[in-house]
Design a protein that fits this description.
The protein is α+β, with helices and mostly antiparallel strands. The protein has a domain of 97 residues: FAS1 domain (Roll), CATH 2.30.180. It contains 9 helices and 7 strands. It has a 7-stranded mixed sheet with strand order 2-1-7-6-5-4-3. Helix 4 crosses helix 8. The chain is globular. The chain starts with a helix and ends in a 27-residue tail after the last helix.
């Protein structure tokens, strides 16, 4: 074999070897690009569920739907309050008396009463006491939240004792939060509260009620609510 043939063969082998070496890293590099592309969908999938809780809706707001009773019925959050009003002959009064303010406890507020207290109040012999509890939530005048925001005032209830209205960072009546204020019904204002307001001595009176009382089971007469003129705005 001539020197020229040997050099030509050697060059050819070198080219083949060089080509093989050049192809090997390229073959390894191709799979290396796959993981970043595959990780993008995984990251997006992981992000989607994490954002879901922020979109959970809160309790629906109460909207005016006629008079105070009709508004409470339409909301669906005041079934216990409405049942108690019906049992104590207050439904008609809350429907037709003008210029009332009602602090309406939700069903959750009644459920939060100590065990047995609601059942005790709902007994036929305790109708008068239950009625007093309900009218302790009623003021015989319109009291929008603008009258006590940033201030504190007392307001006499239909039951007699006053409630304390405070308008700090959270609007309150006594120790209950007003979770939604100023629902403007056709005959007054409804404020949604998260606790049942109990007049002084309410539970003690219910506990001492005598089942054998002569008035047990007798329908309680709705209290007379005197129509008061709308207070002048200052």
């Amino acid at each position: 074999m001539t020197l020229k043939s040997i050099l030509t063969t050697t060059a050819a082998l070198a080219l083949i070897a060089g080509a093989a070496q050049a192809q090997t890293p390229a073959a390894k590099a191709a799979p290396a690009k796959t993981p970043p592309a595959a990780s993008a969908p995984a990251k997006a999938a992981a992000t989607t569920p994490a954002e879901t809780p922020a979109a959970v809706s809160t309790t629906p707001k109460v909207a005016a739907a006629g008079d105070i009773v009709a508004t409470a019925q339409a909301s669906g959050q005041f079934t216990t309050f409405l049942k108690a009003a019906e049992a104590t002959n207050l439904t008609g009064l809350l429907k037709t008396t003008p210029n009332l303010t009602v602090f309406a406890p939700t069903d959750a507020a009644f459920a939060a009463l100590p065990a047995g207290e609601l059942d005790k109040l709902m007994l036929p012999e305790n109708k008068a006491q239950l009625q007093k509890v309900l009218i302790y939530h009623v003021i015989n005048a319109k009291v929008p939240s603008s009258e006590f925001k940033g201030a504190s005032r007392k307001a006499a209830t239909v039951a007699g004792p006053s409630v304390e209205l405070t308008g700090g960072a959270t609007l309150k009546v006594n120790d209950a939060d007003i979770v939604q204020a100023d629902v403007m019904a056709s005959n007054g204002i409804l404020h949604v509260v998260d606790k049942v307001l109990l007049p002084p001595g309410a539970m003690a009176a219910a506990a001492s009620a005598q089942p054998a009382s002569a008035t047990a089971g007798t329908p309680t007469t709705a209290p007379a609510i005197q129509v008061m003129p709308k207070p002048q705005q200052k």
